[in-house]
Design a protein that fits this description.
- The protein is of the alpha/beta class.
- The protein has two domains: 82 residues, Methyltransferase, Methionine Synthase (B12-binding Domains), Chain A, domain 1; 120 residues, Cobalamin-binding domain (Rossmann fold, 3-Layer(aba) Sandwich).
- Helices cover 56% and strands 11% of the residues.
- It has nine helices and five strands; from the N terminus they run ααααβαβαβαβαβα.
- A five-stranded parallel beta sheet has the order 2-1-3-4-5, sandwiched between helices.
- Helix 2 packs parallel to helix 4, helix 3 packs antiparallel against helix 5 and helix 5 packs across helix 9.
- It is globular, with a radius of gyration of 17 Å.
- The two termini are 28 Å apart.
């Protein structure tokens, strides 16, 4: 990666962390002017900035107002870069049902994963946040989805992920869907324990995982 591109991504990341929307606008436009890959800029710049903001929140250096201002800055950048993403249009689109599990309303990470998956050519049904386990299962069956992607940022709502897997087993359709999980408190060990098919630590990893599972 050329030094300049690295610098640009680092500046984008820092602008998000520093809640500097104006600077994000300048840098996102620079990405376009210099024909830098928009997907990379989102992944290495905006997403990394949001990840860092999440860490500062966990460390209690940032609180809800700061986190919201960081996400505003990130979304400002996304609005500029999204039209410049190169969608892949090979063959039939595979379907993903995505949402934040019941009891949790943090959807920044989920939104990033959705955008990255859309860009990678998947057809996304976004159920939003605070989604009951049964709704994931019903929707996946309804649209014949390939993947169910579950997100949470709270330890108190992790059980909802396990409940989705349980419901799939109970309805005897577990083998019809791949289930992936992600979010702050989630780990690969947790994913394995609840019988999910995989865990991704960030949006780019989620895309890789989805492609691998459906290959």
């Amino acid at each position: 990666m050329p030094r300049e591109k690295e610098e640009l991504f680092k500046d984008l990341k820092n602008a998000v962390v520093e809640m500097d929307e104006d600077q994000v606008v300048v840098l996102a436009n620079q990405v376009i002017e210099e024909s830098v890959d928009a997907f990379e800029a989102i992944d290495q710049g905006l997403a990394k900035g949001m990840e860092r903001a999440g860490q500062l929140f966990e460390e209690e250096e940032y609180f809800i107002p700061e986190l919201l201002m960081c996400s505003d800055a990130m979304y400002t950048g996304l609005d500029i870069l999204k039209p410049h993403l190169k969608p892949t249009t090979e063959g039939k689109k595979q379907k993903v049902v995505i949402g934040v599990v019941e009891g949790d309303t943090h959807d920044i990470g989920k939104n990033l994963v959705r955008i990255m998956l859309e860009t990678s050519g998947f057809e996304i049904t976004d159920l939003g946040r605070d989604v009951p386990p049964a709704r994931f299962v019903d929707t996946a069956r309804e649209i014949s989805a390939d993947i169910i992607a579950l997100s949470t940022l709270m330890t108190t709502t992790m059980d909802g992920m396990q409940e989705v897997v349980r419901l799939l087993e109970k309805q005897d359709v577990r083998n019809q869907f791949k289930v992936i999980v992600g979010g702050g408190p989630i780990s690969a060990a947790f994913a394995k324990r609840i019988g999910a098919d995989g865990y991704a630590s960030n949006a780019a990893e989620a895309v890789k995982l989805t492609k691998t599972l459906l290959a």
